[in-house]
Every structure is written in structure tokens, then in C-alpha cells.
User: Fold this.
Amino acid sequence: MRHAAGHHRPRRLQRHHAWPAGYRRDRLSNLIEAISTKRLGLKDVEADIIGKSYEYLIRKFAEGGGQSAGEFYTPPEVGTIMSRVLAPEPGMEIHDPCCGSGGLLVKCEIAMEQKRRADIPVRQSEGNGGLENPPSFAPLKLFGQEYTADTWAMANMNMIIHDMEGQIEIGDTFKNPKFRNRQGRLRTFDRVVANPMWNQAWFTEADDDNDELDRFPGKSSADWGWVQHMHASLNDTGRAAVVLDTGAASRGSGNAGYNKEKTVRRWFVDHDLIESVLYLPENLFYNTTAPGIVIFLNRAKPKDRKGKVFLVNASQVFEKGDPKNFIPDDGIRRIADTLIGWKEEEKFSRIVDHQELAKNDYNISPSRYIHTGDAETYRPIAEIMAELKAIELEARQTDEALRNILEQLGFGA
Assistant:
């Protein structure tokens, strides 16, 4: 259908695995059968009606999935903002190391196609006065990895239904990343997007010490381990966007003791890899009411942006919804355009240099630098609780270290 509607390039899905044992393929085929009962002629519906229908079903599934929905679904407006800011070009290779149902990969392809169509001037064809077909362009090459078999199947179906060129692997990205080069290192890509599970806590110091790919999962949270994995998956001019818990931007800052997340965060700032940070509204995600942030990385920042980070506090850019809040279309445009152009706006966005970040102990949360209210601004409870947990963990670790020292000195009980 997409080809008949003006898409003049062949697509094919690369599949390298059989369906997992015991998986009922009829669950997926029934979707196609149900939709095929409707009139889907070019005069009846828009070109991508199948893809949009599938996205709608995934969203409805997420609404009923509660806490588990966060494992496979990212709010579409968040994906749209990420993909527009990353601005992928035709033929680029895009990777999502924890792709869920593949929504962020799909959003990148859609953003690229929309930008290309907008950039191509519409010309009248000679003879019949009709519109000339726009020139064809190379599709993105999409690569994803997913841990859960059911979700892996959803991502494959998403590629098929959207008629996109994708390779979705199954497995644990941290323990066994499937996309490697001939030397066994991580394969690199033009763009990397991800919304990993927040605050994963099953990594230990031994995992960090033995990691052959030089990633930095902290003992209390693997958020920055995902960021490091994405950084290692970028080529020399690559860019990335990752959705994280708000605490990832500030945990450890202001504390005198050692904090691994703060150390890694400082490394990313000092190496000038963080281009911008977006603070999202609360209650967008299906597995939490916490707001979340998006960190944008750029391995080739323009000269005029070096030594600086662009912060956007979009906590007030939303409309109430049921069951979740959402960012309206004009809000999506405002946020994306602001991030792309580095446009400073009072109570909304600021350019902060590295010296100011260092003065604030490498806290990169936009809420720390941009106050959105007229009166005193209070930090979100979820962010405060996340920092409190980190402080309590540091206190326990300090107590344990002190107890061990005292026992060695003979003062133990």
C-alpha cells in the first residue's frame, strides 16, 4: 500500500531467527485478518493506515498493561521529539539496544521521510498539469535488540506492518549484545535511540569490573550504564537520545562521598558529549507517574556549542488525559524546534556552560537551572525520593566500610 501511495523504493525485512519455541504465530496473523475486513483502498484511507492501526493497538495494550507496559512502549510524542531532534538522514543506520515494540525506530524513519518530503519542492509535471512524483530516497537501516520474546515479536511485526527495513535480534544487550564488528567490539551506528528500563539494580561491581565493553553500570542503578553502551555504539559523528529517570541527572550531586553515577556523569560532561537535556512532564509513561528526562549525546558537537549544554524544562507542556497526560502537537513542535535551534526562552530553556555545571556538582537536571513558576518552585517528589534512596545507599555503604575498619583494628563486637 505504501508503494502505491508514492513510496517508490523496495523494502524488505531481514529476519535471522525462527519464532521462539511455543510462540503462537496466529496471535499476530489474526491482527492482519481483522484489519483486512475493512476497506483499505487508496481513496478510503491514508497511506499508512495499517501502521497507525498497529500503533493504536500497542498503545491500547499498554493502557491495560499497567506497570509492565513500560517494558515495550514509549509515548509517541516523546519518540517524535527524539527523532526530530536527531534528524536522521536517508540511508543512515539507526540502533535501539532495548527496542521494546520498535516504536522509536519507526519514529526515526517517519521523521526522516517527513523531513525529506518537506525539503523537496513540489513541481508541476509537464503535459497534464499533475504533480510530479518526488525523487526517491534511501530508507533508514534499522537495528534493534530486545530481551523479551513476546516484545521481540511485536517489534518484528511493527517493522513488517510499517514496511520498513529492520533487523531485530533477541537477547540480553548488556550480557550479550548481538551487534558487533569483526573485532568483537560493539558495532557503531549513525544514530542510537533508547528508553531502557529505569533504575535497573541487578548489576554488581563485579559486572562493572569484568565488562569487556567498558560500560559503567553502577551498583544502585544501570541508567548510566545504558548511556555508556549507547555512546560506545556511536560512530565518530554519531548522535543519540535516551530516556531516563530524572534522578539520573542529579544523583550524587551535592554529596561529599563518592558516587559512581556522578563520576560517570562528570566524565560525559568533561568530554563534551552531552548536547542537551529535556525535562518531560509528569505522568506520561505507563509504568510510572514520574516525569523522566531525555539526554541527547553528540560525538561531533558544532564548535559554537562546545563547552555548553542546552537545557529545556518542558514540565508544564502537557494536557491532561485519561489514563495518562500527553504532549499536544503544538507542544511537540515547540519542544523540538527549541532543542534543534538552541533557542533560549525564559522559564523554558537555557544554555548552561560547563563551569556552571561543575559549580553545581554536575547536576544536569533542567529543573535545577530553570524555574517554571512565578512563585517558589518545588522539585518533583519522585526526584527527591530517588536522591534520598541514593543517599541512604551511600550511608549504608559508608557504615559498612567503617565497621570493617573498626573490626580490623580490634574494636569489633
